[in-house]
Design a protein that fits this description.
This protein has helices at residues 6-11, 32-48, 59-67, 117-134, 169-175, 178-189, 203-213, 221-231, 270-273, 275-289, 305-311, 343-350, 354-365, and strands at residues 22-25, 71-79, 82-94, 98-103, 113-114, 138-143, 153-154, 158-164, 193-197, 235-242, 245-255, 258-266, 294-301, 317-319, 321-326. It is α+β, with helices and mostly antiparallel strands. It has two domains: 6-155 and 321-333, 3-Layer(aba) Sandwich (Aminopeptidase), CATH 3.40.630; 159-319 and 351-365, Gcn5-related N-acetyltransferase (GNAT) (Aminopeptidase), CATH 3.40.630.30. The strands form two sheets. Strands 1, 2, 3, 4, 5, 6, 7 and 15 form an eight-stranded mixed sheet that branches. A hairpin with a 3-residue loop joins β3 and β4 (98-103). α3 packs antiparallel against α8 and α6 (178-189) crosses α10 (275-289). The longest helix is centred in the middle third of the chain and has 18 residues, at 117-134. It is globular. The two termini are 24 Å apart. Residues 8-16 have low confidence and may be disordered.
């Protein structure tokens, strides 16, 4: 089957409207040197574009393709030889969850990041044409705000929590609401300690056990290793301990002036020790001391424990706008734990022995996106 040509797709847009040519980042389309230069230009654009996020970084392309086994379509627009916008896309196919083209799978943000409306329109049109060519069920763009008002949108399920940080750690502690601040102090009183780990050896078993208790399949160990290797100093792990024994752990991303604690979990003792509260305070404290000025708690579903936990820190929920272009599907997908269709599966998954969940989980989790 011939691969879709995003450049041709963008060229099919109305001649009455100015468009930026859209190309696909693909080693097969040029020399490795050309690809490396384009990847560098891509990340330079992402670093400077206000609309871009950590999840627009080009390193996710290799993770999607080489670690998780999905096709990646990384589209970029150009004007006078310079990148004017990027749109990272991944195709996730499974018998259980369907066939989707998503920006970006496994990431809470994505969609078009462009310097102006002309570039954004070119990329959006190219993505729509690509979705039609691939005959996916739907195209999903994970924007922070509404971008395509005529598209179906899911903006009442997911929220994000972001808040600016004060330069002084003590001011950030005082800014936490009283009851939540008491939980942080409880962790301190329990003599918890935090450490930055060089690898994922302590993080992964804690995280795998946590998501299994929530009824969620765990992603493969190699995925987390790939994150550390791909993003280097912009991805670390903070682990809390009690008398030298791990209590909770979180893998964090760093982008521009913000920190994003992204994958976290705790042992069965963590809640009693205030291990989660102390963990996220330590990430906040460390980030503040290193000059980061934004704390991004990521995505949560309304009505969940995660939503309540983050709100208790004084963060205001901000709706996320996931927009859809339907191709084979007749309606917006409902792939989330609140869907009654998946409740029996989640209940059953919680009862699996941990070794069985850890064996099956990576195969299933990489197909969810």
């Amino acid at each position: 089957m011939t691969s879709p040509d995003p450049e041709s797709a963008a060229g099919s847009a109305s001649a009455e409207r100015a468009v930026d040519p859209v190309k696909r980042l693909d080693a097969a389309a040029g020399t490795l040197a050309d690809t490396a230069a384009t990847e560098a230009a891509w990340d330079t654009f992402v670093e400077q574009c206000p609309e871009a996020t950590f999840f627009h970084r080009v390193g996710w392309r290799r993770i999607l393709e080489e670690t998780l086994g999905h096709r990646a379509f990384y589209l970029y627009s150009e004007r006078e030889g310079a990148i004017t916008g990027v749109l990272p896309l991944g195709q996730v196919k499974s018998l259980l969850f369907g066939n989707a083209l998503i920006s970006v799978p496994f990431c809470v943000y994505g969609g078009v990041a462009a310097q102006d409306q002309q570039a954004a329109a070119s990329l959006t049109e190219a993505a729509r044409a690509l979705a039609e060519e691939l005959q996916v069920d739907y195209l999903e763009l994970r924007h922070r705000a509404r971008r395509n008002p005529d598209w179906p949108c899911k903006d009442d399920l997911y929220v994000t929590f972001r808040k600016s940080l004060e330069p002084a750690p003590e001011k950030n502690l005082q800014a936490i609401p009283r009851k939540q601040r008491a939980m942080v102090r409880k962790g301190i009183k329990n003599a918890l300690q935090s450490e930055v780990d060089s690898g994922i050896e302590r993080f992964y078993p804690i995280y795998a056990s946590s998501v299994q208790r929530l009824g969620t399949p765990v992603l493969p160990r190699r995925y987390f290793r790939a994150l550390r290797e791909t993003f280097g100093a912009d991805c670390d792990v903070v682990t809390t301990t009690k008398d030298g024994e791990p209590v909770s752990s979180v893998l964090n991303f760093y982008f521009r002036d913000e920190v994003l604690p992204y994958y976290g979990g705790g042992t069965e003792q963590a809640r009693a020790l205030a291990g989660f509260d102390f963990l996220y305070w330590e990430v906040m404290r460390r980030a503040c001391e290193q000059g980061y000025r934004w704390f991004d708690y990521g995505r949560s579903k309304r009505g969940t424990g995660s939503f309540s936990f983050k709100k208790n820190w004084g963060f205001e929920p901000q709706p996320l706008c996931y927009e859809y272009h339907l191709v084979g599907a007749q309606q917006i997908p409902e792939i989330n734990p609140l869907n009654p269709k998946y409740r029996l599966f989640i209940a059953g998954w919680k009862r699996l022995p941990l070794f069985v969940a850890n064996w099956l989980g990576p195969w299933l989790a990489r197909r969810i996106g």
